């Protein structure tokens, strides 16, 4: 069940840190923020109430997605980076968001096999955020995603996975997508992190979004009991009837992730408005291409090629954008610098 409250999510305000906080608070009703339970308060709530709250949170997020803002690409890719950092940590890796960003952005496209296991996880989440939602659960895409998550595969495994996902997608109840997708991944021995990827893809398809929004990946490390894991592994479509405690935790995590995504959208909207305000002042060649790329991706490096601009010219452009407060330098390094909203 998905609720779609009539919310005004458009933020108009001054480009200050305080305004960003105010915008994110205004984007979601106070009652909804209070209603989303944390991990410590789940015990006293029933799964139906949490499902209603999760539906309201996804409804609020749906309003943001359907605005199709120019900065939506950067928003989704920033969420993909967060999801990759969490899933990498869950896999026992030490790379944080900065290290993951470096692994992908500082590697030539022809050398992507050298991004490392954690970098490959980021590629998987970036694929979720960038590919059309309708293409995410095809055999071709799932083969690539399995490789990026480090799983061996064969045609039979992929075919079975696609069939199971199609059965889940054809069922009733959006909230069953969360527990069902993770149960399917675990049933095939693919792990919970991949299950969250599948859940986000299924949610986007169910709601008719053009692109998926990485949500549950940022909550992939949410703990589950051994009993819950055994229940999921033994059932193709874990539901609220067969795994209520597991469902409560996952639905609450989805609701918190949706609110976090809405808050990030308000922050990036403020930053994009600043970038678009100063864009007419830029005189560098291909500056329009640079602006569009900043709005569509998490970050870019100063060594990329834009319309024939030299490395020196691009660095001057980025220095100007930083000076104007329109872009941030994200690496903190004097060389191999990375820029983004």
From TrEMBL:
It comes from Mesorhizobium neociceri. It holds the Pfam family DUF1403. InterPro entries: DUF1403. This is DUF1403 family protein.
